[in-house]
Batch of 3 targets.
Target 1
Amino acid sequence: MKLEEFVDPYLGRTWADLGARVLSSGNKVAVTLGYPAEGFVDELQGQLREHVGSGSLELEVQFAAPPGRGFGQVKHIIAVASGKGGVGKSTTAVNLALALDAEGAKVGLLDADIYGPSQGMMLGVGEDRRPDIKDGKFFEPIRAHGIKAMSMSFMVTDNTPMVWRGPMASGALQQILTQTLWEDLDYLIVDMPPGTGDIQLTLSQKVPVSGAVIVTTPQDIALLDAIKGIEMFRKVDIPVLGVVENMSVHVCPECGHVSHLFGSEGGAKVASELGVPLLGELPLDLKIREQADGGRPTVRQEPDSDISRLYRDIARHMVARLWGGGSGSEQQGPTIRMVDD
């Protein structure tokens, strides 16, 4: 069978249809995909060998990000959102960003939760660390664990409450997004605040977002809010790349007993009803929270663990959707003064 007729495992379409570049010489095959897949080569090679009926095939996978809707040198902006708080959205966002980096992409992470920024802590950035200022008007993103990051937590302390009204917070978000020197990025992951308020609408209407991912738990109330989030993005013409079900199952570390503490298959049901893919299911595991709170998220702390492999699989599936086509009035906000100190 022809190599171009191989059906991509994430998209269910042939590489020929997707426009993958496939080159072969003898038993060596080089393929250029529209999503990073450094951690997927062995599995993909096995599937390709089965497809062509040859056990000697050797695969090399290269990555070229498809053209995006981003700005400057940022190709794609992906919003990671949730309909309500407490579903593990920020932990999911940082691990997905680190997973894309591990897969071979150039990645940035923007903490868009102006009122309750948490990515500084999750990335292990010290409270006294501030972004450098260039030319008096641009932020240099802080590098942490191999990715570029920007967060309001880099500018204030934990004891500084944000008491801005909605339009002020939206203006601050626009400023730290557009006045940060992201340079060349394949993907900028945006950790959204929970809900469907002013900041979500600002990002949706004023920023060229390529797609959104909704994080939920199996609980009925969380699923209802997830549906609201999906519908919000659809109304502003942002493709919903899929749903991530967090805290899906708990496996007892002592006896291996499996418990569905918050229900089961809720994310799959929502995804099916709304016609979006279920990108993956993540377990309820104390280590995920402890590692993120300790500044070394799971994908960095335990890169070879089963949970890290789940994050990497979800991240590949998420950006593969971009390759496959994925599915207000302006108000004055506050100005953030940039001071070298």
Target 2
Amino acid sequence: MVEHNRQKEMSVALTNDTICAISTPQGTGGIAVIRISGPEAIDIADKIWQGRKLGLAESHTAHLGTIVNPSDGSPLDQALATIFKAPHSFTGENVVELSVHGSVYVQQELLRILTANGCRIAQPGEFTRRAFAAGQLDLAEAEAVADLIASTSATAHRLAISQLRGDLSRCLENLRSSLIDLGALLELELDFSEEDVEFASRQTLAAKTTDTIEILSRLKDSYANGSALKRGLATVIVGAPNAGKSTLLNTLLGDERAIVSDIPGTTRDTVEDTLNIAGTTFRLIDTAGLRETDDKIEAIGIDRAMGKASTAAILILLIDSTDPVIPELPDLTQIPHVIAVITKTDHGDSDAKTAAQLLAKELPCLKSRPIEISALTNSGMTALTDQLGDIAKQMAPAQGEVMLTDARHYAAISDALTSLTRFHTGLSDGIPGDFLAQDLREALTHLGIVTGAISSPDLLSAIFERFCIGK
């Protein structure tokens, strides 16, 4: 079945043409790389090349030469040509990568010369799609290529590398193999239902299914942390007006990102920026002060603040030590991590003890002691960033643990879990074997969708269109 779908995908995605594109970021730089892939890649490169004949070169070798325009023999640029011969290349096809100087003119002129000599400009993600069709990558690994390119932190990079090296794919393939074995036993039961033969009791089948359900449940549950770590942890700063939210944001960022004023209600909309702590990206979100107001514009800002707070990965609740007030808050038990911070401890009329007592009385759900800070003197700031870093470590996967980061994978795993749970329940409820077999086939289908063992042209187009051209 996997091979059948792979052959079908190859017929959809691959043609006999040769494609080219700029693989480095657009614009001027020291070096630009133009990638060529397809059956005629080396022959086309030789048409525009002065130097050692590339068709005679060994695979995985680099050669210095000059790119020329075959129409008049004029030189374009000195370049380095790197040769990868099929099937030992990223796409599984012949590939030539031309490293030229980063002039925008040189890049565009080289593309024009290549297209005039038999190349076609690649579509977004077409190189990676060809790699998938050639069996160089499965679909989950191909998506990891895009995640790796987009990674902006060490944590996001680790998650992408894990998926690219096949950790998720191997996990799911092992689960599929287990389910296929279960299906074989169930089919034998159906085939020999009129015989006095028992290949495996339903209790045995249920026991074998339990482990798979537990693994799928852990994978599904990992998505909340995995998605947040990949995109940056949404860290929402809330508190009453003038509690020091904007000052804290600016101090953490080391920049005057938000307007600071003694006038209540200055912040009327969310202000966002990113901060990297210990290799993890935090999306800091400053919000409007929480209070009762008749100002319609400020009320909109407060509604937005409550909305952001209710969906935060981390909530930083600020209490002004000079005027301790706990505003109306969303349900803190539904927010994964809440940090209470007592601010303005450098002020002469500060009363941090009273603020801490108020927090203990009004918010007994808080799991850690409040942090006392002064954003103006940086007192307590290290303790705050250390706690943020500790939370990121808690959320990160353990060594060898597989974590979901993609919404498509989450949906497929959820559907597989639903089908397999129905199968497990049906075993004990005496559901006929043919209905159970259907549930098992559905679970296998959903798992196969993640890796591309089961795929459709529309799905593949939607995935690879998100890639940049040249990858």
Target 3
Amino acid sequence: MALPFTNGNAKNRDQMVAIDLGGRTTKAVTLQRKEDGLVLSRYALLDAPIYERSPSAELIGEHLKSVCQVLEPKSKLVALALGVHDSITRHADLPQIPVGDMRQILKNNPKNYLQQDLPGHLFDCFIIPPRHSAKAADKPKAAPGSPKYRVLVVGAKRQLVDDLQTAVKSTGLIPDHILPGLVGPVNAFERALPEVFAKECVALVDIGFKNTTICILQEGELVLSRVVAIGGDKLTAGLAEAMGISYAEAEGIKVGMPSEVQSHLEALVAPLGRELRASIDFFEHQQDKAVTQVFLSGGSAKSEFIVQVLHSELMVECKPWNPVSFLKMSLPPQQAAEIDQVGPQLAVAVGAALTALTQ
């Protein structure tokens, strides 16, 4: 699913650096295309820069230099994934016109199609192909004389995109793609579990630092997406307050989960489960289809207890998935030893790299 706000149109993309600009931790990967498949040659997890408002291009540029010191990339091409507060993702019905013209009408009249004014934004569109299994009688009928495409629309502030391009260029790299991070797990899931992606109705839940995203896929189509303002930070902070311990101590025990803290954590995770359940209920009511499985990614997905609590709240089978499972590994020894632990945090970065490499 290619939805870049900017696209360098570089040819022969055999290697790509992809960076997920997270709220607390920046995640980055270097993927390389070889004859026998895609190879993960390096990854990085670094503390994100601290800032009060929007970060400057200079601050982002210095941070990207630190990322590159870890990755040591051979390619200069970079794909950047934006956080959920820096981009929007919407479904819309647009006229059957070229994508370039769609971008223009969204720029001129976003409220008509997206139900809100979005001045100074850039837009991109992905035309959703009809599902192969859909019967002719089930397909929505367009009004006579006004055929429409069902389109996934993304938007971001032009100033932010410009600042990010300036920041990347200051490192000597080339900003090949800037895209919404929300679609990253979808792209990675398609490669990691292709049969499930193409044939089932599932929910992808990515638990980030400040927010959790839920994407519901029906036979390979992103039908619904939602952002819930509960993430790993709220779970850790709530655990620290409930137990009278430091934030760092709470973060350390959240995944390992001694039995004495489970009751505190269960009370914190349950509201997230209810929000996700509401999203699934809405989808099932609208589409008359049942979500059969929920796949979890993000740092908190490493906690077996959190997975169990979400399973109880959602009443659907929940399981973590590995966004790097389909990749061949060519990692330094220390990273190779740790990849199984950090893999669930790399869903957005891996998906961003795939967007650029497979276009």
